[in-house]
Amino acid sequence: MALYRGHDLKIIQELLKEIGAHRYEMALRNMKVQQKPMGMKGWYLESSEHYLRLCHRYPSGYILMLMDVDRCDNIPRKGWERIKVER
Fold this sequence. Notes:
This protein is of the alpha+beta class and 87 residues long. The protein contains 2 helices and 5 strands; from the N terminus they run E-H-H-E-E-E-E.
């Protein structure tokens, strides 16, 4: 399975605006997140043939896969990096 990551923070910021504060806060509550991500550093998109998720990597190395965003409009078409292929 191939995994792709997108790190364009401008696009991710637009995506967060599209998601909206209410959906964002609900996703954090549903995931039982104790410490909200601070700022834009650490955000990325991860995609495979099965999902497209908004993720955040904390400085500690913990990765939060916050929500599926495959139905959002602000998904970048360019700038994806292939990071893993399993056979």
